[in-house]
């Protein structure tokens, strides 16, 4: 009945089976007269999802998380992960060959500085590190008296004999009915940013920026309609796009050539050298531009100017057409979610469902909309202890049966041409424990605090992140991930520059879409997360002395009332829950085509009554 077209459940290679690769890699380092090498989880543009040909970290170590790094020395080796992957990494990596270390505090450079010796030669691939990252590595080497060596070719590739070919996904046009702004108007705004920066040109090293600027989409990486490409936009004259011509149809080529010169990727280096030779100053995105680009410009006599990518902010602030599209996408998605949640409530108590069953079912319900292009990331469906693994991905080996007394955490999203969705619900299977209800209620109160937040212009995500944590903190609890990330418009489900996080320094602007997803995870027991997407809008406050903003919730799916401890929430929180559920019922019921789901939705959105 159900099947997944966009996701697989095969177990990735890992553990001791990969240890021979580490030995072969060390032999390659010796051949190159290197005493160590740094392997980031990255491609040339620091994309979250990278093509199979760039999954060097996973191939060498077995670790498949979306963020991480490995360092191989001749006598030592470590895999560095952040708080999301502290449970996952030891299960995938041979811990006899690799130690698992923190990616954040202390950073990998501290580990390196303690282990490098004078005269050591630490290699790195300058195409896979930003200049800032390369500078941190160099500082660690200098502290130890070692040398940092930029390699011409990656030694991982030399021992990866069955490395996949680079992707050739077809480029498609993102029409005005979804984009809402022409390429020429976007380029005019980008040139204003070039003038503000006082540079001669800007390199678009982020493929998302290229896709947004020129209104194209692609299929080069999983789950994000991304055409891997670069662009060079001068302050005067025509921009250039660097993209493999094999990805272009006649129509997509004509579309691009109307706005820019279209060249092969190899021409980027030549164009930069020619421009730099005149002493030009060229802006590079500090977050995505490879250190190799900065070196190339400097060597040719130009001046690389590192800055934050101005296109990232332009792209993050959605226009009226994009906002209308995402509202439509979320209503469509809500129909699939209602059918799915009703199905889980009917079938899970029978004891026959597994995690894979739920992943396949949810994707099938979304495909039933007739508009699904892809899932926006591999669905996280964790029941019982698997739910405590923040970025858990079910495999046929890990697949767990959903049992009465479990919590099922399901985090998923969809890619539609008019919008990108991301939603998490935690579902009680049978009777939850008092502890589960207490933790869920604390997470929900944090979620509501974000959803109800009112804040002045200039407020950053870091300033409101603690709103989501306060009720957990009161019980000595917390969660080891950010509260929210930006979301693109039929682009990346994890979009910068804004986020709700302790590290979120970008002001939240009207038109931005961010997730609101506090959680709680009890290792080896259960996980809880509640996630809606929020749109930043103007807050109209009578008598306000400055511009104020608030969130408008986009996601429309019931929150499990069975897990809410009603006498532990305030009247305002109770009112928010009941108003939200009334809105879900009002907007989604007319869109449902089956009475069974309508009946379930009516019950799932009944007003909650406080026991006070």
Describe the fold and architecture:
Strand 11, helix 10 and strand 12 form a beta-alpha-beta unit. The relative contact order is 0.09. With 612 residues, the chain is an alpha+beta fold. It has a six-stranded mixed beta sheet, sandwiched between helices. The protein is built from 19 helices and 28 strands. It holds the Pfam family Peptidase_M24_C. Keywords: Aminopeptidase, Hydrolase, Metal-binding, Protease. Belongs to the peptidase M24B family.
Q: Give the number of DSSP strands.
A: 28
Low-confidence region ranges: none
**N-to-C terminal Cα separation, in Å?**
45 Å
Taking the sheet with the most strands, its summary is:
6 strands, mixed
How many structural domains? 3
Which percent band covers the strand fraction?
15-25%
Strand order of the largest sheet: 4-3-2-1-5-6
| CATH secondary-structure class of the largest domain | Alpha Beta
Q: How would you state the average pLDDT, rounded?
A: 96
CATH architecture label name of the largest domain:
Alpha-Beta Complex
| Subunit organisation of the chains | single chain
Pfam family, one: Creatinase_N_2
Protein name: Aminopeptidase P family protein
InterPro entries: Creatin/AminoP/Spt16_N, Creatinase/aminopeptidase-like, Creatinase_N, Pept_M24, Pept_M24B, Peptidase_M24_C, X-Pro_aminopeptidase_P
Domain Peptidase M24 C-terminal: 548-608
